[in-house]
C-alpha cells in the first residue's frame, strides 16, 4: 500500500508532467506499406495522447498510402494478388471510394480454379464506392458526374452477371444505397437494370430471377410503393417484332408479381423496347458475346 504522502507526491508529479505528444511525424513521413502499418499502429497504441480526430486522420492517410501502393503495383504489372492485397489493406484502414472502385475493376480480371469471375463481389465493391461518394464531402472530394455514372453502370452490369442475387448495401445513415439509391450527389438515377433473369425465350423467371423479384418487391415496399414503369429489353438475337413482344411479356411478368404482393396495378406502367435501347456497357471488350447478351436481357425500373 502506497503511503498517503507518497501517493500525493506521485499525483502532483503526474499533473505537472507534459502530456505525451501524438506520434504523427512518422505517419506523415511513411511511404512504404511496412512503414505505414508501423506508424498507424503507433498512433492507435498511443491511446489518449492522440485525439479521435488524429486517429481518424491517420487511418485515412494510411488508406490513401495503401491505395497509392496498389496503383503503383498495378502500373508495374505486378500479379493481381499483390494489387488486391494492397487494396484490401487500404480498405482495412478506411473506406475510400477509389479503393472500392479499383478493387471492383480488379476482381473482373481474376478467375478462380473453375475459371469463374466473382461478379457478385465486384458489384458490391462498385456499390460501396457509390455509397462512399455520397457520404463524402463534395467540397473536399469533388467527383465528376461522369465518374459516378460509370460506377453505377459497372455496378449494374456486374450484378446482371453475378451467379447469386446481389443485395444493395445501405448507406452509412441506413438509407437505400448502391443501386437502390435515387440520387448520388449530382447523379440522378433515371432507371436501374434489375437482375431478374428469365428462361430462354420465355417470360418465366429463373430461380435466381424469382429471388431478385422478391428483393425488388421488398425495396419498393420500403419506399411506399411509388408509381413505377417497368421497361423490358432483349438482346439483338431474333426479329425486332418478336423481341418487342417478349420484352413486354417479361416486364408484365414482373408487374404481375408485384401486384400479387399488394402493389396497386394503377401505379405500374409497362413498356417493351426489345433490342432498341441497349445499355451502355463499360469495358465492353472484357466480356464475351454471351455475357453482353445477358446484360442486355433485362427489365429496367423507372421510379416516377
Task: Tell me about this structure.
Helix content is 53%, strand content 8%. The protein has 304 residues and is an alpha+beta fold. The strands form two sheets. A four-stranded mixed beta sheet has the order 3-6-4-5. The chain has a two-stranded antiparallel ribbon with strand order 1-2. Strand 1 (183-184) and strand 2 (187-188) form a beta hairpin. Helix 3 (33-45) packs antiparallel against helix 4 and helix 4 (52-75) packs antiparallel against helix 5 (80-93). The longest helix is centred in the N-terminal third of the chain and has 24 residues, at 52-75. It is elongated. 37% of the residues are buried. Mean pLDDT is 92; it is low at 5-19.
Brief write-up:
The protein is built from eleven helices and six strands.
Count of distinct structural domains: 3
Kindly state the percentage of residues in helix: 40-55%
How much of the residues is beta strand, in percent? 5-15%
CATH topology of the largest domain: 60s Ribosomal Protein L30, Chain: A
In spatial order, strands of the major sheet run 3-6-4-5
Mean pLDDT: 92
CATH C-level class of the largest domain? Alpha Beta
Shape: elongated
Tell me the major beta sheet. Answer: 4 strands, mixed
Class based on secondary structure composition and strand pairing:
alpha+beta
- Please tell me the CATH architecture of the largest domain by its name: 2-Layer Sandwich
Contiguous helical run count? 11
Low-pLDDT parts are 5-19
- DSSP E strands, number: 6
Give, in order, the helices and strands. HHHHHHHHEEEHEHEHE
CATH superfamily label of the largest domain: OmpA-like domain
N-to-C span = 74 Å
Please state the CA-atom Rg, rounded to the nearest Å: 25 Å
Amino acid at each position: 500500500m502506497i503511503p498517503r504522502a507518497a501517493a500525493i507526491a506521485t499525483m502532483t508529479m503526474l499533473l505537472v508532467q507534459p502530456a505525451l505528444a501524438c506520434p504523427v511525424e512518422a505517419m506523415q513521413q511513411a511511404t512504404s506499406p511496412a512503414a505505414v502499418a508501423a506508424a498507424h499502429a503507433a498512433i492507435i497504441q498511443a491511446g489518449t495522447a492522440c485525439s479521435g480526430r488524429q486517429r481518424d486522420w491517420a487511418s485515412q492517410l494510411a488508406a490513401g498510402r495503401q491505395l497509392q501502393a496498389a496503383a503503383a503495383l498495378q502500373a508495374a504489372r505486378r500479379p493481381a494478388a499483390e494489387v488486391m492485397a494492397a487494396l484490401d489493406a487500404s480498405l482495412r484502414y478506411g473506406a475510400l471510394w477509389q479503393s472500392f472502385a479499383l478493387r471492383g475493376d480488379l476482381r473482373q480480371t481474376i478467375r478462380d480454379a473453375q475459371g469463374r469471375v466473382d461478379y457478385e463481389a465486384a458489384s458490391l465493391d462498385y456499390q460501396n464506392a457509390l455509397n462512399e461518394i455520397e457520404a463524402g464531402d463534395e467540397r473536399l472530394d469533388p467527383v465528376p458526374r461522369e465518374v459516378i455514372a460509370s460506377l453505377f453502370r459497372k455496378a449494374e452490369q456486374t450484378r446482371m452477371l453475378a451467379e447469386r442475387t446481389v443485395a444493395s448495401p445501405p448507406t452509412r445513415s441506413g438509407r437505400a444505397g448502391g443501386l437502390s439509391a435515387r440520387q448520388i450527389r449530382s447523379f440522378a438515377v433515371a432507371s436501374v437494370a434489375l437482375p431478374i433473369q428469365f428462361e430462354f425465350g420465355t417470360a418465366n423467371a429463373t430461380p435466381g430471377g424469382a429471388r431478385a423479384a422478391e428483393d425488388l418487391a421488398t425495396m419498393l415496399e420500403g419506399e411506399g410503393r411509388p408509381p413505377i414503369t417497368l421497361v423490358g429489353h432483349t438482346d439483338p438475337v431474333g426479329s425486332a417484332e418478336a423481341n418487342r413482344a417478349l420484352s413486354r411479356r417479361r416486364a408484365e411478368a414482373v408487374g404481375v408479381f408485384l401486384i400479387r404482393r399488394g402493389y396497386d396495378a394503377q401505379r405500374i406502367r409497362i413498356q417493351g423496347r426489345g433490342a432498341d435501347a441497349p445499355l451502355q456497357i463499360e469495358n465492353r471488350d472484357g466480356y464475351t458475346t454471351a455475357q453482353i447478351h445477358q446484360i442486355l436481357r433485362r427489365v429496367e425500373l423507372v421510379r416516377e
